[in-house]
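Reviewer 2 asked us to include a model.

Predict the structure of this chain.
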Amino acid sequence: MRKYLDIDLSTRSTEVKEVDGEEVIVVGRHLIAKKLLENGVATVDPLGPDNPLIFSAGPFAGSNFSNANRLSVGCKSPLTGGIKEANSGGTFAFAMGQLEISGITFHGASDEWVNLYITKEGEIEYEDATPYLGKGNFEVGKLLFEKYGDKVSLSICSPVGEYGGLLAGISFTDPEQRPSRIAARGGVGAVMGSKKLKAVIIDRHKMPGFHDRKKLMGAVREYGQRLDNDAAIVSFRKYGTAMVGDFTNKIGGLPTRNFSAGTLVDTKEEPMRLGGNYIRDLNLERGGETTHACMPGCQIQCSNVYADKDGNEMCSPVEYETLGLMGSNCGLEDPDDVARLNNVANDLGIDTIETGAMLGVLMEAGQGTFGDPSFMSDALDDIRAGNERGKLLAQGTARVGEHYGIKRVPVVKKQGISAYDPRVIEVTGISMMVTAQGADHTAGNIPAFECDGKTTEELTEASLEIQTICAAADSLGLCLFGRSVTNESIDFVVEALNDAHGTNFDESKFMDIGKEALEMEWQFNKEAGFADEDDEMPEFFFSEALEPTGKTQRHTQINVNKHLRTLINA
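Predicted model (C-alpha coordinates):
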Protein backbone atom coordinates (compact mmCIF):
# COMPACT_ATOMS: atom_id res chain seq x y z
CA MET A 1 0.00 0.00 0.00
CA ARG A 2 1.31 3.44 -0.91
CA LYS A 3 -0.08 6.95 -1.15
CA TYR A 4 -0.75 9.22 -4.11
CA LEU A 5 -0.81 12.97 -3.47
CA ASP A 6 -2.86 15.44 -5.52
CA ILE A 7 -1.62 18.88 -4.49
CA ASP A 8 -3.52 21.98 -5.62
CA LEU A 9 -1.08 24.88 -5.51
CA SER A 10 -3.86 27.41 -6.12
CA THR A 11 -5.70 26.50 -2.91
CA ARG A 12 -2.81 24.85 -1.03
CA SER A 13 -4.96 21.79 -0.50
CA THR A 14 -3.96 18.13 -0.72
CA GLU A 15 -5.95 15.01 -1.51
CA VAL A 16 -4.34 11.77 -0.35
CA LYS A 17 -5.36 8.54 -2.05
CA GLU A 18 -4.27 5.06 -1.00
CA VAL A 19 -3.06 2.92 -3.89
CA ASP A 20 -2.11 -0.73 -4.03
CA GLY A 21 -1.71 -3.64 -6.41
CA GLU A 22 -0.92 -2.71 -9.99
CA GLU A 23 -1.51 0.98 -9.23
CA VAL A 24 1.81 0.88 -7.34
CA ILE A 25 3.58 -1.26 -9.93
CA VAL A 26 2.52 0.27 -13.26
CA VAL A 27 3.59 3.90 -12.90
CA GLY A 28 6.02 6.26 -14.70
CA ARG A 29 5.35 6.77 -18.39
CA HIS A 30 2.23 4.59 -18.32
CA LEU A 31 0.68 6.46 -15.41
CA ILE A 32 1.62 9.87 -16.85
CA ALA A 33 0.03 9.12 -20.22
CA LYS A 34 -3.10 7.69 -18.56
CA LYS A 35 -3.59 10.66 -16.24
CA LEU A 36 -2.93 13.29 -18.90
CA LEU A 37 -5.36 11.62 -21.31
CA GLU A 38 -8.08 11.15 -18.69
CA ASN A 39 -7.85 14.81 -17.71
CA GLY A 40 -8.04 16.16 -21.25
CA VAL A 41 -4.66 17.88 -21.01
CA ALA A 42 -3.80 17.57 -24.73
CA THR A 43 -5.51 20.85 -25.64
CA VAL A 44 -4.52 23.04 -22.66
CA ASP A 45 -1.89 25.77 -22.58
CA PRO A 46 1.29 23.95 -21.46
CA LEU A 47 2.34 26.99 -19.40
CA GLY A 48 -1.12 27.53 -17.96
CA PRO A 49 -2.46 26.31 -14.60
CA ASP A 50 -4.43 23.45 -16.21
CA ASN A 51 -1.26 21.58 -17.19
CA PRO A 52 -0.52 19.21 -14.28
CA LEU A 53 3.05 18.37 -13.29
CA ILE A 54 3.48 14.73 -12.27
CA PHE A 55 6.26 13.10 -10.23
CA SER A 56 6.06 9.29 -10.33
CA ALA A 57 8.30 6.81 -8.46
CA GLY A 58 8.66 3.12 -9.25
CA PRO A 59 7.49 0.13 -7.18
CA PHE A 60 10.99 -0.58 -5.81
CA ALA A 61 11.59 3.06 -4.83
CA GLY A 62 12.95 3.42 -1.32
CA SER A 63 14.81 0.11 -1.47
CA ASN A 64 18.35 -0.64 -2.68
CA PHE A 65 17.14 -2.59 -5.71
CA SER A 66 19.79 -1.51 -8.22
CA ASN A 67 18.83 1.00 -10.96
CA ALA A 68 15.24 1.06 -9.68
CA ASN A 69 15.05 4.52 -8.08
CA ARG A 70 14.45 6.54 -11.23
CA LEU A 71 11.89 9.34 -11.21
CA SER A 72 9.46 10.06 -14.05
CA VAL A 73 8.37 13.67 -14.50
CA GLY A 74 5.40 14.25 -16.79
CA CYS A 75 3.25 17.01 -18.30
CA LYS A 76 2.31 18.51 -21.63
CA SER A 77 5.56 19.82 -23.09
CA PRO A 78 5.79 23.56 -23.79
CA LEU A 79 8.73 22.79 -26.11
CA THR A 80 7.00 20.26 -28.40
CA GLY A 81 3.32 20.82 -27.63
CA GLY A 82 2.99 17.06 -27.12
CA ILE A 83 3.29 14.65 -24.23
CA LYS A 84 6.48 14.52 -22.20
CA GLU A 85 7.99 12.10 -19.72
CA ALA A 86 11.41 13.28 -18.57
CA ASN A 87 13.45 10.84 -16.51
CA SER A 88 15.93 11.52 -13.72
CA GLY A 89 18.22 9.81 -11.28
CA GLY A 90 19.03 11.30 -7.91
CA THR A 91 17.51 10.71 -4.49
CA PHE A 92 14.01 12.13 -4.91
CA ALA A 93 12.24 8.93 -6.00
CA PHE A 94 14.15 7.10 -3.26
CA ALA A 95 12.82 9.59 -0.69
CA MET A 96 9.29 9.29 -2.07
CA GLY A 97 9.52 5.52 -1.69
CA GLN A 98 10.80 5.84 1.88
CA LEU A 99 7.70 7.92 2.73
CA GLU A 100 5.58 5.35 0.84
CA ILE A 101 4.50 7.92 -1.73
CA SER A 102 3.96 6.47 -5.18
CA GLY A 103 3.29 9.71 -7.00
CA ILE A 104 2.51 13.42 -6.75
CA THR A 105 0.50 15.58 -9.12
CA PHE A 106 0.86 19.33 -8.78
CA HIS A 107 -2.28 21.08 -10.01
CA GLY A 108 -2.98 24.74 -10.62
CA ALA A 109 -0.50 27.51 -9.89
CA SER A 110 0.47 29.42 -6.78
CA ASP A 111 -0.22 33.15 -6.62
CA GLU A 112 3.22 33.71 -5.11
CA TRP A 113 6.53 31.89 -5.43
CA VAL A 114 6.65 29.02 -2.92
CA ASN A 115 8.77 26.15 -1.70
CA LEU A 116 6.88 23.03 -0.66
CA TYR A 117 8.12 20.74 2.11
CA ILE A 118 6.86 17.16 2.56
CA THR A 119 7.71 15.89 6.05
CA LYS A 120 8.24 12.30 7.11
CA GLU A 121 5.01 12.61 9.12
CA GLY A 122 3.13 13.33 5.90
CA GLU A 123 2.60 17.04 6.53
CA ILE A 124 2.90 19.54 3.69
CA GLU A 125 4.30 22.95 4.51
CA TYR A 126 4.70 26.03 2.34
CA GLU A 127 7.31 28.77 2.62
CA ASP A 128 8.00 31.98 0.75
CA ALA A 129 10.49 31.23 -2.04
CA THR A 130 11.37 34.86 -2.78
CA PRO A 131 14.87 34.64 -1.17
CA TYR A 132 15.81 31.83 -3.59
CA LEU A 133 14.71 33.43 -6.85
CA GLY A 134 17.29 34.19 -9.51
CA LYS A 135 19.96 32.09 -7.83
CA GLY A 136 21.78 29.19 -9.46
CA ASN A 137 20.90 25.65 -8.46
CA PHE A 138 24.09 25.07 -6.48
CA GLU A 139 23.45 28.08 -4.24
CA VAL A 140 19.77 27.20 -3.82
CA GLY A 141 20.69 23.63 -2.90
CA LYS A 142 23.22 24.81 -0.31
CA LEU A 143 20.71 27.18 1.28
CA LEU A 144 17.96 24.55 1.43
CA PHE A 145 20.22 21.91 2.98
CA GLU A 146 21.31 24.48 5.57
CA LYS A 147 17.65 25.15 6.40
CA TYR A 148 16.23 21.61 6.31
CA GLY A 149 19.25 19.49 7.23
CA ASP A 150 21.02 16.68 5.44
CA LYS A 151 18.20 14.10 5.53
CA VAL A 152 16.17 15.59 2.69
CA SER A 153 16.06 15.39 -1.07
CA LEU A 154 15.50 18.42 -3.27
CA SER A 155 13.71 19.24 -6.50
CA ILE A 156 14.59 22.68 -7.88
CA CYS A 157 13.18 24.94 -10.57
CA SER A 158 16.14 26.78 -12.06
CA PRO A 159 16.42 30.51 -12.80
CA VAL A 160 15.75 29.63 -16.47
CA GLY A 161 12.56 27.82 -15.50
CA GLU A 162 11.52 30.87 -13.49
CA TYR A 163 11.18 32.97 -16.65
CA GLY A 164 9.74 30.18 -18.80
CA GLY A 165 12.86 29.21 -20.75
CA LEU A 166 12.14 25.99 -22.63
CA LEU A 167 15.70 24.72 -22.09
CA ALA A 168 14.83 24.32 -18.41
CA GLY A 169 14.62 20.92 -16.79
CA ILE A 170 13.89 20.09 -13.15
CA SER A 171 16.97 19.40 -11.02
CA PHE A 172 17.18 16.76 -8.30
CA THR A 173 19.93 16.13 -5.78
CA ASP A 174 22.30 13.20 -6.11
CA PRO A 175 23.53 11.06 -3.17
CA GLU A 176 26.22 13.69 -2.37
CA GLN A 177 23.68 16.55 -2.45
CA ARG A 178 24.64 17.98 -5.86
CA PRO A 179 21.49 19.31 -7.61
CA SER A 180 22.81 17.91 -10.87
CA ARG A 181 20.49 15.03 -11.74
CA ILE A 182 18.05 16.59 -14.18
CA ALA A 183 14.72 15.58 -15.69
CA ALA A 184 15.95 17.61 -18.59
CA ARG A 185 13.93 17.30 -21.75
CA GLY A 186 10.82 18.98 -23.07
CA GLY A 187 10.77 22.16 -20.99
CA VAL A 188 9.39 20.53 -17.84
CA GLY A 189 11.27 23.13 -15.75
CA ALA A 190 9.29 25.90 -17.43
CA VAL A 191 6.09 24.11 -16.36
CA MET A 192 7.33 24.03 -12.76
CA GLY A 193 8.16 27.73 -13.09
CA SER A 194 4.70 28.53 -14.46
CA LYS A 195 3.28 27.14 -11.21
CA LYS A 196 5.58 29.42 -9.21
CA LEU A 197 6.93 26.33 -7.48
CA LYS A 198 10.60 27.06 -6.81
CA ALA A 199 11.53 23.91 -4.91
CA VAL A 200 10.11 20.75 -3.38
CA ILE A 201 11.85 19.45 -0.28
CA ILE A 202 11.08 15.94 0.90
CA ASP A 203 12.30 14.13 4.00
CA ARG A 204 14.36 10.99 3.67
CA HIS A 205 13.35 8.46 6.28
CA LYS A 206 13.73 4.70 6.36
CA MET A 207 13.13 1.70 4.16
CA PRO A 208 9.41 1.44 3.48
CA GLY A 209 7.25 -1.54 4.26
CA PHE A 210 7.15 -4.35 1.72
CA HIS A 211 4.96 -7.45 1.52
CA ASP A 212 7.84 -9.93 1.92
CA ARG A 213 10.91 -7.94 2.85
CA LYS A 214 13.15 -10.99 3.27
CA LYS A 215 12.46 -12.29 -0.24
CA LEU A 216 12.86 -8.80 -1.71
CA MET A 217 16.27 -8.38 -0.07
CA GLY A 218 17.29 -11.72 -1.54
CA ALA A 219 16.21 -10.48 -4.95
CA VAL A 220 18.21 -7.26 -4.45
CA ARG A 221 21.36 -9.34 -3.86
CA GLU A 222 20.67 -11.72 -6.75
CA TYR A 223 19.98 -8.89 -9.19
CA GLY A 224 23.22 -7.22 -8.10
CA GLN A 225 25.15 -10.41 -8.83
CA ARG A 226 23.60 -10.62 -12.28
CA LEU A 227 24.73 -7.06 -12.96
CA ASP A 228 28.26 -7.88 -11.77
CA ASN A 229 28.43 -10.80 -14.20
CA ASP A 230 27.15 -8.94 -17.26
CA ALA A 231 29.75 -7.75 -19.77
CA ALA A 232 27.79 -4.66 -20.86
CA ILE A 233 27.33 -3.54 -17.27
CA VAL A 234 31.01 -4.09 -16.50
CA SER A 235 31.90 -1.81 -19.44
CA PHE A 236 29.45 0.88 -18.33
CA ARG A 237 30.88 0.74 -14.83
CA LYS A 238 34.45 1.03 -16.10
CA TYR A 239 34.08 3.66 -18.85
CA GLY A 240 30.72 5.31 -18.15
CA THR A 241 28.34 6.56 -20.81
CA ALA A 242 31.24 8.43 -22.44
CA MET A 243 32.30 5.13 -24.00
CA VAL A 244 29.42 5.55 -26.46
CA GLY A 245 31.42 8.44 -27.98
CA ASP A 246 34.25 6.10 -28.91
CA PHE A 247 31.71 3.93 -30.74
CA THR A 248 29.73 6.64 -32.55
CA ASN A 249 32.94 8.39 -33.66
CA LYS A 250 34.27 5.06 -35.00
CA ILE A 251 31.16 4.26 -37.06
CA GLY A 252 30.70 7.84 -38.28
CA GLY A 253 27.49 8.65 -36.39
CA LEU A 254 28.76 11.25 -33.90
CA PRO A 255 27.10 14.68 -34.31
CA THR A 256 29.87 17.05 -35.31
CA ARG A 257 29.62 20.78 -36.09
CA ASN A 258 25.82 20.89 -36.30
CA PHE A 259 25.49 17.40 -37.78
CA SER A 260 27.70 18.30 -40.77
CA ALA A 261 30.05 15.35 -40.14
CA GLY A 262 29.86 12.02 -38.33
CA THR A 263 33.42 11.78 -37.01
CA LEU A 264 35.25 14.27 -34.81
CA VAL A 265 38.75 12.81 -35.11
CA ASP A 266 40.54 10.07 -37.00
CA THR A 267 41.70 7.87 -34.14
CA LYS A 268 44.55 6.57 -36.30
CA GLU A 269 45.98 10.09 -36.13
CA GLU A 270 44.96 11.31 -32.65
CA PRO A 271 43.00 10.15 -29.60
CA MET A 272 39.26 10.62 -29.27
CA ARG A 273 39.40 12.94 -26.26
CA LEU A 274 35.61 13.08 -25.85
CA GLY A 275 35.38 9.30 -25.46
CA GLY A 276 35.29 6.98 -22.49
CA ASN A 277 38.81 5.58 -22.80
CA TYR A 278 40.53 8.97 -22.80
CA ILE A 279 38.29 10.49 -20.12
CA ARG A 280 38.71 7.50 -17.81
CA ASP A 281 42.51 7.59 -18.01
CA LEU A 282 42.61 11.37 -17.61
CA ASN A 283 40.21 11.32 -14.67
CA LEU A 284 42.14 8.54 -12.90
CA GLU A 285 45.37 10.45 -13.37
CA ARG A 286 43.81 13.57 -11.84
CA GLY A 287 42.16 11.80 -8.90
CA GLY A 288 38.55 12.05 -10.08
CA GLU A 289 35.94 9.31 -9.77
CA THR A 290 35.42 7.15 -12.83
CA THR A 291 32.46 5.32 -11.31
CA HIS A 292 29.60 7.02 -9.51
CA ALA A 293 26.03 6.11 -8.64
CA CYS A 294 23.45 8.70 -9.64
CA MET A 295 20.88 7.18 -7.27
CA PRO A 296 20.92 5.15 -4.04
CA GLY A 297 21.61 1.45 -4.41
CA CYS A 298 22.70 1.48 -8.04
CA GLN A 299 25.48 -0.99 -8.80
CA ILE A 300 25.93 0.03 -12.41
CA GLN A 301 27.58 3.32 -11.37
CA CYS A 302 27.97 4.56 -14.94
CA SER A 303 28.32 8.20 -13.90
CA ASN A 304 31.49 10.05 -12.85
CA VAL A 305 32.99 12.96 -10.96
CA TYR A 306 35.26 14.79 -13.38
CA ALA A 307 38.36 16.48 -11.92
CA ASP A 308 40.44 19.36 -13.24
CA LYS A 309 44.22 19.28 -13.67
CA ASP A 310 44.68 20.23 -9.98
CA GLY A 311 42.49 17.36 -8.78
CA ASN A 312 39.51 19.55 -7.88
CA GLU A 313 35.99 18.56 -8.84
CA MET A 314 35.00 20.32 -12.06
CA CYS A 315 31.68 18.67 -12.85
CA SER A 316 29.51 15.71 -12.00
CA PRO A 317 28.37 14.13 -14.18
CA VAL A 318 30.00 14.44 -17.61
CA GLU A 319 27.89 12.14 -19.79
CA TYR A 320 27.87 11.08 -23.42
CA GLU A 321 24.90 13.15 -24.58
CA THR A 322 26.57 16.32 -23.27
CA LEU A 323 29.93 15.37 -24.80
CA GLY A 324 28.12 14.83 -28.10
CA LEU A 325 25.84 17.87 -28.28
CA MET A 326 27.76 20.51 -26.30
CA GLY A 327 31.07 18.96 -27.35
CA SER A 328 31.54 17.59 -30.86
CA ASN A 329 28.33 19.12 -32.21
CA CYS A 330 29.72 22.55 -31.28
CA GLY A 331 33.20 21.71 -32.57
CA LEU A 332 34.83 21.23 -29.15
CA GLU A 333 37.49 18.55 -28.72
CA ASP A 334 38.78 19.11 -25.17
CA PRO A 335 36.77 17.40 -22.39
CA ASP A 336 37.84 20.14 -19.96
CA ASP A 337 35.94 22.69 -22.07
CA VAL A 338 32.85 20.49 -22.13
CA ALA A 339 33.03 19.79 -18.38
CA ARG A 340 33.34 23.50 -17.57
CA LEU A 341 30.29 24.35 -19.71
CA ASN A 342 28.45 21.30 -18.41
CA ASN A 343 28.87 22.52 -14.84
CA VAL A 344 27.39 25.91 -15.77
CA ALA A 345 24.48 24.13 -17.48
CA ASN A 346 23.91 22.07 -14.31
CA ASP A 347 23.84 25.25 -12.24
CA LEU A 348 21.27 26.63 -14.69
CA GLY A 349 19.30 23.36 -14.66
CA ILE A 350 19.08 23.20 -18.45
CA ASP A 351 18.92 20.36 -20.96
CA THR A 352 22.44 19.96 -22.38
CA ILE A 353 21.08 18.10 -25.44
CA GLU A 354 18.73 20.93 -26.38
CA THR A 355 21.31 23.55 -25.40
CA GLY A 356 24.06 21.94 -27.49
CA ALA A 357 21.78 21.55 -30.50
CA MET A 358 20.70 25.19 -30.12
CA LEU A 359 24.29 26.45 -29.88
CA GLY A 360 25.22 24.44 -32.98
CA VAL A 361 22.43 26.17 -34.90
CA LEU A 362 23.57 29.53 -33.51
CA MET A 363 27.06 28.84 -34.86
CA GLU A 364 25.51 27.77 -38.16
CA ALA A 365 23.83 31.20 -38.22
CA GLY A 366 27.23 32.87 -38.03
CA GLN A 367 26.69 34.15 -34.50
CA GLY A 368 29.72 32.22 -33.27
CA THR A 369 32.53 29.96 -34.44
CA PHE A 370 32.56 26.18 -34.09
CA GLY A 371 35.09 25.16 -31.46
CA ASP A 372 34.90 28.41 -29.47
CA PRO A 373 34.08 27.66 -25.80
CA SER A 374 34.16 31.36 -24.87
CA PHE A 375 31.29 32.07 -27.28
CA MET A 376 29.32 29.23 -25.67
CA SER A 377 30.09 30.54 -22.19
CA ASP A 378 28.87 34.01 -23.15
CA ALA A 379 25.64 32.51 -24.49
CA LEU A 380 25.09 30.67 -21.19
CA ASP A 381 25.72 33.94 -19.34
CA ASP A 382 22.94 35.57 -21.36
CA ILE A 383 20.62 32.65 -20.62
CA ARG A 384 21.39 33.00 -16.90
CA ALA A 385 20.74 36.76 -16.99
CA GLY A 386 17.48 36.30 -18.85
CA ASN A 387 18.18 39.34 -21.02
CA GLU A 388 16.60 39.72 -24.45
CA ARG A 389 19.16 37.52 -26.20
CA GLY A 390 19.19 35.02 -23.36
CA LYS A 391 15.41 34.59 -23.40
CA LEU A 392 15.54 33.96 -27.14
CA LEU A 393 18.26 31.30 -26.80
CA ALA A 394 16.35 29.70 -23.91
CA GLN A 395 13.45 28.91 -26.27
CA GLY A 396 15.48 26.07 -27.79
CA THR A 397 16.79 24.85 -31.11
CA ALA A 398 13.73 25.06 -33.35
CA ARG A 399 12.77 28.58 -32.33
CA VAL A 400 16.34 29.90 -32.53
CA GLY A 401 16.68 28.34 -35.99
CA GLU A 402 13.44 29.97 -37.09
CA HIS A 403 14.54 33.35 -35.69
CA TYR A 404 17.76 33.32 -37.72
CA GLY A 405 16.23 31.72 -40.83
CA ILE A 406 18.44 28.62 -40.64
CA LYS A 407 17.51 25.56 -42.75
CA ARG A 408 19.85 23.05 -41.09
CA VAL A 409 18.00 22.67 -37.78
CA PRO A 410 18.28 19.17 -36.21
CA VAL A 411 14.89 18.75 -34.53
CA VAL A 412 11.83 16.52 -34.65
CA LYS A 413 8.63 17.95 -33.16
CA LYS A 414 10.70 21.04 -32.26
CA GLN A 415 12.95 19.03 -29.93
CA GLY A 416 16.70 18.73 -30.55
CA ILE A 417 17.97 15.41 -31.90
CA SER A 418 20.14 13.47 -29.48
CA ALA A 419 23.76 12.46 -30.08
CA TYR A 420 23.10 9.82 -32.76
CA ASP A 421 23.14 10.86 -36.41
CA PRO A 422 20.06 9.18 -37.94
CA ARG A 423 21.81 8.67 -41.29
CA VAL A 424 24.08 6.09 -39.67
CA ILE A 425 22.34 5.03 -36.43
CA GLU A 426 19.09 4.32 -38.20
CA VAL A 427 16.95 2.44 -35.68
CA THR A 428 17.48 5.15 -33.08
CA GLY A 429 16.70 7.69 -35.82
CA ILE A 430 13.37 5.99 -36.55
CA SER A 431 12.57 5.96 -32.83
CA MET A 432 13.27 9.69 -32.64
CA MET A 433 10.98 10.25 -35.65
CA VAL A 434 7.88 8.45 -34.44
CA THR A 435 7.99 8.71 -30.66
CA ALA A 436 5.39 11.05 -29.21
CA GLN A 437 8.13 12.38 -26.93
CA GLY A 438 9.88 14.40 -29.66
CA ALA A 439 13.43 13.51 -30.78
CA ASP A 440 14.29 11.57 -27.62
CA HIS A 441 16.90 8.80 -27.62
CA THR A 442 15.65 7.32 -24.34
CA ALA A 443 12.40 6.40 -26.09
CA GLY A 444 14.11 3.72 -28.19
CA ASN A 445 17.89 3.65 -28.60
CA ILE A 446 20.01 0.75 -29.90
CA PRO A 447 23.06 2.41 -31.47
CA ALA A 448 24.95 -0.85 -32.02
CA PHE A 449 22.17 -2.44 -34.11
CA GLU A 450 23.51 -3.41 -37.52
CA CYS A 451 21.48 -1.36 -40.02
CA ASP A 452 23.36 -1.81 -43.31
CA GLY A 453 21.42 -3.81 -45.87
CA LYS A 454 18.20 -3.79 -43.89
CA THR A 455 14.91 -2.42 -45.15
CA THR A 456 12.78 0.32 -43.65
CA GLU A 457 10.35 -2.38 -42.56
CA GLU A 458 13.02 -4.40 -40.73
CA LEU A 459 14.41 -1.32 -38.97
CA THR A 460 10.94 -0.06 -38.03
CA GLU A 461 10.23 -3.44 -36.43
CA ALA A 462 13.45 -3.19 -34.41
CA SER A 463 12.54 0.36 -33.41
CA LEU A 464 9.07 -0.59 -32.21
CA GLU A 465 10.50 -3.43 -30.14
CA ILE A 466 13.06 -1.23 -28.36
CA GLN A 467 10.48 1.55 -27.92
CA THR A 468 8.18 -0.94 -26.22
CA ILE A 469 10.94 -2.23 -23.94
CA CYS A 470 11.97 1.31 -23.00
CA ALA A 471 8.38 2.36 -22.29
CA ALA A 472 7.91 -0.70 -20.07
CA ALA A 473 11.10 0.03 -18.11
CA ASP A 474 10.10 3.70 -17.74
CA SER A 475 6.72 2.50 -16.42
CA LEU A 476 8.39 0.44 -13.68
CA GLY A 477 10.93 3.02 -12.45
CA LEU A 478 13.86 1.09 -13.95
CA CYS A 479 16.96 2.66 -15.49
CA LEU A 480 17.41 1.82 -19.16
CA PHE A 481 21.12 1.16 -18.67
CA GLY A 482 20.28 -2.05 -16.86
CA ARG A 483 18.33 -3.50 -19.74
CA SER A 484 21.04 -6.01 -20.77
CA VAL A 485 20.21 -7.76 -17.49
CA THR A 486 16.56 -6.73 -17.08
CA ASN A 487 15.53 -7.94 -20.54
CA GLU A 488 16.98 -11.39 -19.77
CA SER A 489 15.49 -11.46 -16.28
CA ILE A 490 11.89 -10.31 -16.74
CA ASP A 491 10.57 -13.35 -14.85
CA PHE A 492 12.92 -12.59 -11.99
CA VAL A 493 11.97 -8.89 -11.85
CA VAL A 494 8.26 -9.74 -11.91
CA GLU A 495 8.68 -12.21 -9.04
CA ALA A 496 10.52 -9.51 -7.06
CA LEU A 497 7.66 -7.07 -7.74
CA ASN A 498 5.15 -9.58 -6.43
CA ASP A 499 7.28 -10.23 -3.33
CA ALA A 500 7.49 -6.49 -2.76
CA HIS A 501 3.78 -5.73 -3.04
CA GLY A 502 1.89 -9.01 -2.62
CA THR A 503 0.55 -8.85 -6.15
CA ASN A 504 -0.03 -11.45 -8.85
CA PHE A 505 1.53 -9.44 -11.62
CA ASP A 506 2.16 -11.61 -14.68
CA GLU A 507 5.39 -11.74 -16.69
CA SER A 508 3.42 -11.50 -19.94
CA LYS A 509 2.23 -8.03 -18.95
CA PHE A 510 5.73 -6.52 -19.14
CA MET A 511 5.58 -5.82 -22.87
CA ASP A 512 1.87 -5.01 -22.67
CA ILE A 513 2.68 -2.13 -20.32
CA GLY A 514 5.07 -0.71 -22.87
CA LYS A 515 2.60 -1.12 -25.74
CA GLU A 516 -0.19 0.55 -23.77
CA ALA A 517 2.06 3.48 -22.79
CA LEU A 518 3.10 4.06 -26.42
CA GLU A 519 -0.47 3.90 -27.68
CA MET A 520 -1.69 6.37 -25.05
CA GLU A 521 1.18 8.75 -25.86
CA TRP A 522 0.37 8.64 -29.59
CA GLN A 523 -3.31 9.23 -28.77
CA PHE A 524 -2.38 12.26 -26.63
CA ASN A 525 -0.36 13.80 -29.45
CA LYS A 526 -3.17 13.14 -31.93
CA GLU A 527 -5.56 15.01 -29.65
CA ALA A 528 -2.94 17.77 -29.33
CA GLY A 529 -3.02 18.22 -33.12
CA PHE A 530 -0.03 16.22 -34.32
CA ALA A 531 -0.11 14.47 -37.69
CA ASP A 532 2.15 12.00 -39.52
CA GLU A 533 3.98 14.89 -41.18
CA ASP A 534 5.36 15.89 -37.78
CA ASP A 535 7.34 12.62 -37.71
CA GLU A 536 9.65 13.60 -40.56
CA MET A 537 13.38 14.16 -40.23
CA PRO A 538 14.66 17.59 -41.34
CA GLU A 539 15.31 17.83 -45.08
CA PHE A 540 19.08 18.25 -44.84
CA PHE A 541 19.47 14.70 -43.52
CA PHE A 542 18.04 13.47 -46.87
CA SER A 543 20.00 15.81 -49.14
CA GLU A 544 23.43 15.94 -47.42
CA ALA A 545 25.72 12.91 -47.49
CA LEU A 546 27.37 12.44 -44.10
CA GLU A 547 31.13 12.13 -44.10
CA PRO A 548 33.02 9.84 -43.81
CA THR A 549 30.36 7.20 -44.62
CA GLY A 550 28.58 9.11 -47.41
CA LYS A 551 25.21 8.02 -46.03
CA THR A 552 21.94 9.94 -46.30
CA GLN A 553 18.61 9.51 -44.56
CA ARG A 554 16.85 6.54 -46.16
CA HIS A 555 13.57 6.44 -44.25
CA THR A 556 10.61 8.76 -44.78
CA GLN A 557 7.82 9.14 -42.27
CA ILE A 558 5.34 7.84 -44.89
CA ASN A 559 7.08 4.47 -45.18
CA VAL A 560 7.93 4.23 -41.48
CA ASN A 561 4.42 5.06 -40.31
CA LYS A 562 2.85 2.72 -42.88
CA HIS A 563 4.78 -0.26 -41.54
CA LEU A 564 4.46 0.89 -37.93
CA ARG A 565 0.67 0.75 -38.22
CA THR A 566 0.90 -2.72 -39.74
CA LEU A 567 2.98 -3.91 -36.79
CA ILE A 568 0.70 -2.29 -34.20
CA ASN A 569 -2.46 -3.71 -35.79
CA ALA A 570 -0.87 -7.15 -35.93
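The chain has a mean pLDDT of 97. DSSP finds 23 helices and 17 strands in the chain. We have added this to the supplementary material.
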